[in-house]
Each structure stands twice: as C-alpha cells, then as structure tokens.
Amino acid sequence: MASESPQDTFARRADELREYVFSQPASKFENNPWALAAAIETFANEKGHMMIFRDSKLAVAKEALLAQQPAPRTILEFGTFVGKSALAWGAILRDIHGENIPEDVNVYTFDPDSKMVALTRDFVKLAGMENTIHVLEGFGSDSLNKLVAEGKVTSVDMAFYDHWEKYYLSDLQLLEEKKLWRVGSLAIADNTDMPGAPDYLAYVKAGGSGAAGAVKYESKSYETQGGKGPSVVEISVVLETN
Ligand SMILES: C[S@@+](CC[C@H](N)C(=O)[O-])C[C@H]1O[C@@H](n2cnc3c(N)ncnc32)[C@H](O)[C@@H]1O
User: Fold this and answer.
1) CA dihedral sign of residues 127, 140, 45, 188
2) What pLDDT is attached to residue 5?
3) 78 pairs with which residues across the strands?
4) pLDDT at residue 3, as a whole number
5) 101 CA from centroid of ligand 1 (Å)
6) How far, in Å, from the CA of 22 to the mean position of ligand 1?
7) Where would one find the signal peptide in this protein (predicted)?
8) Residues lining ligand 1, judged by CB closer than 6 Å?
C-alpha cells in the first residue's frame, strides 16, 4: 500500500482536530482563545507530529511581545496551519488591550491551504476572536501586498515567520520594501535551525543588508525544549528603519 503523503497526513490530522475540538462543549472555548490554543497543543501532544508552534516556543515570543513598547497592535503571521499560533497572538493582544479589543488591534494570518484556512476561521469564530484575527487565504506576500494597497496595514509591530523556510527572507524584505517596520518591531522566526532558513538567519544575524539607510536588526537565537527536542526561535528587533 502506498504510504500517505505529508499533505494527506496534515489534512487527516486537521479533520481529527476539528472533531476533537467540536466534540467538546463550546462553552469551554467561547471567548477563550487561550483555552482553544491549549486544546490544540493537547491534541498535538497526543497525536505526535504536528507542525504547530509549541507552548515552549510561544512562551519566549510572548515574553518579547509583553515587553514591547509601545504595546503591539498589528501582528502578521506567515503560516496559519491549524491556527494554534494565530489564536495565541490574538490572546496575547487581548491580555494586553483588554476584552474589548480596539478596532486597530489585529492579527493577519496567511496560508494558501484552503482546508487550514477554513478550519482556523471556524476556530477563530468559536473563540469569539473574528473581529481581531483575520485569516487570509493565499501566499503571505500576495495577501500582505493587498492589505497594504487597501491601506489596512501601514505599520507592523510583529511579523511571525512559520511557513516554508525558503520564503522567510523575501517575506522579511517585503516588510522593508513596504516600509512597515518601526523601531522596536519584532521579526520572530521558527525553525531557523531545523529544517533551517540559512539565508534568513545570516541576514538578520548580520543586522540586515548593510546598505546605507537600510533597516537594521539585532537578532538573538533562543533554544527551547519541546515537541521533538531542542529547537530554536529567532527573535530580531528592528533598531533602525529605512
Ligand atoms: C509550520 S505550519 C504553521 C503552523 C502554525 N503557525 C501553527 O502554530 O499552528 C506552515 C504553514 O505554512 C503554510 N505556507 C506555506 N507557504 C506559505 C506562504 N508562502 N505564505 C503563507 N503560508 C504558507 C503551509 O500551508 C502550512 O500550513
């Protein structure tokens, strides 16, 4: 019998996760994005391999966001998958800004996989976060170009890179090109060590392109434990904008 492709495994897991969440009382998750993010983590722990942003890594990112000044209002996420991290970003923004989250406080999460987009939209609705977490179907670069053209995104406090590693660097540079960074913005990237994003890592570690007037970054690797063992989260702070 032919073995299942990774794509088919992800799709099957997404169906199982939907069943796992929606077979529980809705009251457990209503208005509670943290509870839903925790349920996704529990499901992943039980099922084994699932490419979610684990709590051990999330803790590092959360600390950076809570310390950010001024407080974050606009978060971009490249790679939605099942919405674990998108729900967590929304929950962090709610912790910071209160239950009545202001209209200009938003998470935009991007994924070309329509199945994952549909699942995450249902999760976002269940958690009562649909006014804050926007799930956009398509490549992150296309969706971001559109948001900028529409005037919906003019400045970014944090961009999270958790999609396919070959896109990390160009999607970081897109924010430079669109002049979306501010001093103190954060670029947070998962899996820079494994499977690895060497061009991205070299770029942020060097502080950016080094060209006159270019964006400058200060970057640090955080080793965390979780899921399949040690893994690195790269957090880069914007020191100067272009
Ligand atoms: C590692 S998963 C994301 C995990 C997610 N952040 C979470 O914690 O649940 C990677 C996702 O990136 C998506 N992806 C691949 N290329 C992309 C692109 N160019 N823009 C946005 N998403 C992309 C894939 O479809 C996949 O669902």
Assistant:
1) negative
2) 87
3) 110, 161
4) 80
5) 26
6) 23
7) none
8) 51-53, 78-79, 81-85, 110-113, 116, 139-140, 162-164, 167
